Amino acid sequence: MPANWPTGAGTRSSRVRHDEPLPDAPAGPGNHPRNEGDRGVTDLFDWKPPRDETEPRTAVISREELQQQVLAQIVAVMARSGETGLSAIQTARERFPGTPNGVLMRAYSIWSTNREEAWWRALEDGVNAPTVRRALEGPKP
């Protein structure tokens, strides 16, 4: 071990001093304290290779957003299930093979809730219509 490496209590073998370039490292930026912001000791495990700028950047999407998008696609397929003559879950199973039952059930719950809400809205709109209201009130004396 080179003489300038820390030894003794409170030191780790993964840490090196920046007094001199790293041993067995090519000369260049990053091998001297003036190029590292003179931080003193750096953890070698924190090192990351430089990013290749020719790689396309990928959009970062959160797990919740991804789940919402996937569920929206499955719900859309379930909404069109009447065209196939199959149940909503069976249609989704055929369209998205390998999807876990829990995901399909969650999508089915969303689809079913949407259908129920649409039914209630249609019922409320029908009740609020003047002709239906008059029919419910009965004839005027």
Describe, in plain words, how this protein is organized in 3D.
It is a single chain. With 141 residues, this protein is mainly alpha-helical. The protein folds into two domains: 50 residues, no CATH class; 75 residues, no CATH class. Helix content is 43%, strand content 4%. It contains four helices and two strands; from the N terminus they run ββαααα. Strands 1-2 form a two-stranded antiparallel ribbon. The longest helix is centred in the last third of the chain and has 28 residues. The protein is elongated, with a radius of gyration of 33 Å. The chain starts with 14 loop residues before the first strand and ends with a helix. About 6% of the residues have low confidence.
What is the count of distinct domains?
A: 2
Summing up helix and strand content along with how strands pair, one would put the structural category as mainly alpha
Instruction: Spell out the helices and strands N to C.
Output: EEHHHH
Provide the helix percentage: 40-55%
Number of helices, where a helix is a run of at least 4 consecutive DSSP H or I residues:
4
pLDDT < 50 stretches: 33-41
- What is the 3D form? elongated
Multimer state? single chain
Q: Give the strand order, joined by hyphens, for the main sheet.
A: 1-2
**What is the gyration radius calculated from CA atoms?**
33 Å
> How is the main sheet built?
2 strands, antiparallel
Beta-strand segment tally:
2
Mean pLDDT: 74
Distance between the termini: 108 Å
Report the sheet-strand fraction.
under 5%
